[in-house]
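User: My advisor asked me to double-check a structure prediction for Relaxase/mobilization nuclease domain-containing protein before group meeting. I don't want to rely on an old file, so could you generate it fresh from this sequence?
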Amino acid sequence: MIPNITKGERMSGLLVYLAGPGRANEHTDPHLVAGSGPIMAWHNDDQLNRDAAVAIAHQLDQAKNVLGVEFKGGHVWHCSLSLRAEEGVLTDQKWAEIANDFMDEMGFTETSGKAPVAWVAVRHGHSKAGNDHIHIAASMVREDGTKWSSHLDYKRAQETARALEKKYGLEELSPVYAQRGLRPGEREAAERRGVEEPERRSLARKVRACATAATDEAEFVRRFRRTGAMIKPRYAAGRDDVIVGYSVAERPPKGVRPVWFGGGHLAKDLTLPRLRGAWADSPEQATAAVAEWGAAARGRRPISVGAEAHEPDPQLWAHYSDEVARLRETLRTVPVEDHGTWAQVARETSGAFAAWSTATEPTPGPLAAAADELSKTAQLRRYPARPVRTSGPSAKGASLMLMAATMGGKGTAAEAIMLRQLLNVAKAIHDMHKASNDLRRARQISDVVKHQLAQVAAALPAVPATTMAVDREAAEAVRASTAGQGPGRPAGPVLPPTYEQAKNHATTRSGSTRPDIER
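Assistant: Sure, here is a fresh prediction for Relaxase/mobilization nuclease domain-containing protein from the sequence you gave:
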């Protein structure tokens, strides 16, 4: 949920605009969904017209006008709360609950321990980009003539939005678990180029697959080149033997320029320093990596041949399946607050599905969807200054085996067993999100298991029914995340408030003035 704040001087101008047709006639059915008790008692959810908008603006301005409060920089506080178009549509009741909680947390209501301010939340249809949203219009003058403080209101609004995303099961746009999304127009640009999916997403999956399957940096470079995509190093200034980053691109048709992406623009955990934290390192391996990077930069053949060119021993399927099973057991003792460990597990599990997708899916399918979904948990807001290598069971071996899976066909019993073990780990990640009250993420993981990976399981040979049932608790999380949040709050007092000047008139600095229109 995206909050956007503006400030101004003309309350009537703002309300008339919100009740009007909009710049491109995008405003449809403008109406109130929440607000101060007296205002909501007089103005119900009928469609607003210009006269109603002016009357509401007069009520919002009443404390300022009756008590003669001067407010340098403008007393009108306007904040839009928007969802991404992909999130769909909320009900008026849900928006009312969100608006009331938002105003409580921002200190506009009685819950602040101070006199309340007059405010309303207006809903008037989707924006031009298809975003469901509401607009909150509030006076910055309280009923007793004191002033609501706008100090750090932008920061407070962002923090409040993050908390409400978690409470109401909305997409978390800036949480601890966050992923770099597609830029505006990126999907459309990919479609114009005739690409199945935006290059940023397909490249991130390939990098994740190759990085998880590789044991060192040189092997990563060779594995990535085998996918058919292009990779080049970024050297330290004035050096050709120190690599500090990389860029990747899908191989374009002849005569078309490639679109390059740096690792950090694919995902926060795919920068070269982050990847290096999972690989073995020695002077000899560093030298080999520099040589492979140089060959890739010049378009030459790989310098050497490693594990990427050989089929892994089939007997290793059982070994690495058991290792994933041991990983699941160790996760039972990992606290939900240990974000670093959960991010690493999600990164490896996402890499295993990405490796399987790279090997077997000619176009993005269920395995790619699973890799993309789990990769969201692999992101951290802040990473340690130095990557910390950990020992113990992991899903890296699963990536090595799945990278060599055969494209097409029905798969093998070994792949079916590996899928079951990986689903166990995905279930553990789901449970972590559920325990953290991150119900939206839990629901998304449950959905990809039940609706995407179920297709993969159905195409594989049957395995003994001794593995877990992944759906029951995930389905419970879905029900909890989509259930109502309880009855809405009472409308509050219906009598107009009595405006009495506070004994000690407080003054605060207001924020910068901005236009009284939505952005």
